[in-house]
Task: inverse folding
């Protein structure tokens, strides 16, 4: 008898005699071998059958200390494996609070991801046998009406704790920092992978996606890999400062990399804002009015606004449309590939109204300003890759007014 029915005369490990069976109901009629009159119909899964009493006695003896031991599953969808390995097939999933009968345990503890524990061989209600990792079990011995806890693991995982405590930023933050090219459209306090353990919320934001989901439990799914149950997220810890997240957004699968930032994101943003303000200030101080006989008059104001009049040559070259107004805003939001950086002081965007934006490389020279129009097809994530084009548009301006004091 492996798992007697509740309030049964029999106890786990008792040897019973099978007197008959029902194929239709999938049951045995059994009695104690030394008490033939006590018979009862019992589900077959509760009994392990043998061809001889000797074999049954040997198996009962092998149960040893596990004869009266059961375990409660502490996590929803806790997997049962076919072998004592996290890589073996999943044969069953338990509900949180479900009871299983313990049949044995591996002799030595094993490492599963960042956790160390034993694999318990168990019998599920209904008869499925397999192995469950003990980190998610409350193991107890039931003797009559008393129950004694044998093992109850604290569900603390240092690596998981570090994962949940950290603000994870998109990996391209690292590349922008390394190149000292901070694109404020992609480098933001709002962007990253964030965990709220109290609310069990996982939130991902980047320029293209904003999603937030609630998990019920976190389950290991291999070494340093965790599934957030009832969400689409699976997170792999590649190192203490690097993770990758798999998730589904609007029916499409994604995988994204995230890093732990050593630098303060606010401070990085403040430095980049300061750099752009300094570039604007320099252009205003060295102008603020620049004049070209061909391309008209270009004026930059210290509030970031510009005026460009008599720009018909720009229209004829297809750089702006005839609908573009004469005013807009200037932003120093583009960067230059190092191989061409020596020839230019920087790059900026001019936004005419709400519809049209054009980019230029610029350099200050000979008491004036030299511009080179940059077509969109040589720009990658706001990085200007080359200054060599088939039909370049070069603009030369002279300073029309003395520099501001």
Result:
């Amino acid at each position: 008898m492996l798992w007697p029915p509740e309030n049964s005369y029999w106890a786990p490990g008792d040897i019973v005699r099978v007197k008959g069976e029902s194929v239709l109901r999938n049951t045995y009629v059994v009695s104690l071998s030394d008490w033939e009159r006590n018979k009862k119909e019992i589900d077959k899964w509760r009994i392990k059958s043998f061809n001889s009493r000797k074999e049954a006695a040997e198996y009962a003896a092998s149960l040893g200390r596990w004869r009266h031991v059961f375990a409660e599953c502490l996590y929803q969808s806790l997997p049962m494996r076919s072998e004592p390995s996290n890589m073996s097939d999943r044969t069953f999933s338990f509900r949180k609070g479900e009871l299983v009968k313990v049949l044995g345990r591996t002799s030595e503890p094993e490492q599963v991801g960042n956790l160390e524990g034993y694999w318990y061989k168990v019998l599920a209600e209904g008869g499925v046998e397999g192995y469950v990792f003990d980190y998610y079990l409350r193991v107890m011995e039931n003797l009559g009406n008393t129950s004694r806890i044998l093992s109850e693991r604290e569900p603390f995982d240092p690596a998981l704790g570090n994962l949940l405590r950290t603000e994870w930023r998109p990996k391209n933050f690292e590349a922008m920092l390394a190149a000292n090219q901070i694109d404020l459209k992609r480098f933001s306090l709002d962007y990253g992978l964030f965990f709220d353990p109290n609310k069990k919320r996982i939130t991902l934001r980047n320029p293209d996606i904003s999603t937030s989901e609630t998990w019920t439990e976190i389950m290991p799914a291999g070494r340093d890999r965790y599934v957030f149950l009832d969400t689409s997220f699976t997170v792999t810890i590649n190192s203490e400062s690097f993770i990758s997240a798999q998730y589904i957004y609007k029916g499409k699968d994604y995988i994204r990399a995230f890093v732990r930032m050593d630098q303060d994101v606010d401070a990085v943003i403040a430095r980049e804002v300061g750099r752009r303000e300094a570039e604007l200030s320099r252009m205003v101080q060295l102008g603020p009015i620049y004049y070209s006989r061909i391309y008209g008059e270009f004026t930059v104001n210290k509030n970031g606004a510009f005026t460009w009049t008599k720009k018909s040559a720009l229209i004829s070259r297809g750089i702006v449309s005839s609908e573009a107004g004469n005013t807009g805003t200037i932003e120093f939001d583009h960067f230059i590939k190092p191989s061409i950086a020596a020839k230019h002081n920087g790059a900026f965007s001019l936004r005419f109204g709400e519809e049209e934006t054009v980019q230029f490389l610029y350099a200050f020279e000979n008491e004036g300003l030299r511009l080179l129009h940059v077509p969109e097809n040589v720009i990658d994530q706001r990085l200007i890759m080359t200054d060599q084009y088939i039909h370049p548009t070069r603009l030369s301006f002279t300073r029309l007014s003395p520099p501001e004091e």
Summary: The two ends are 97 Å apart (CA to CA).
